Amino acid sequence: MNSLFVIAPYKYEGIWVFDDPSVGLVQEPFVSGADTILDVLTEDIPNAGEGFRLVFSLDPFPGYTARFVWNRPEFSGNWYTWPERNMEGWLCPALFKYFEDAPKEIYVKASAK
Question: From the CA atom positions of the chain, what is the Rg in Å?
Fold first, then answer.
C-alpha cells in the first residue's frame, strides 16, 4: 500500500472534483465543507480551479500544510476537522478507495501542478 497518495482536484461546473482512474473515480465531488476547505487550501495557488496537486497521507511528511482530524461517521462517509482553521468537512465513501478504515488523521499538501 502507498504511504503517499496524489490526486489533482479541479473545478467542474463550479464544484471541486477529482479523477482517479486507478481506483475507478471520475469527477468525484468534494461537498459538505470539504469544498470550502479546498478553497482555503488553494487560495495562494494561481488558477487552482484548472487543477492542482493534492498529496495526502496517514502520516506527517516533509512540507505537509494541513492536518485533518477524524470526528465522526455519517452517511457512509466521515467528518474531519482542520483544527488550526476551525473548519470541518465531510469525506465521502471514496475515502475507502485509499484507506481500509477512516484514518484518525490525514496530512495534506496542496501545490500547483
Answer: 13
What's the number of CA atoms in the CB half-sphere (13 Å) around residue 80? 24
Cell numbers standing for residue 104:
484518525
- 14 Cβ contact list (under 8 Å, min separation 6): none
pLDDT tens string 25-78: 999 999 999 999 999 999 999 999 999 999 999 999 999 999 999 999 999 999
67's enclosing H/E stretch is: strand 66-74
Cα–Cα dist 83/100, whole Å: 24
Quote the pTM value: 0.94
Structural domains in the chain, CATH included, are 5-112 (2.40.50)
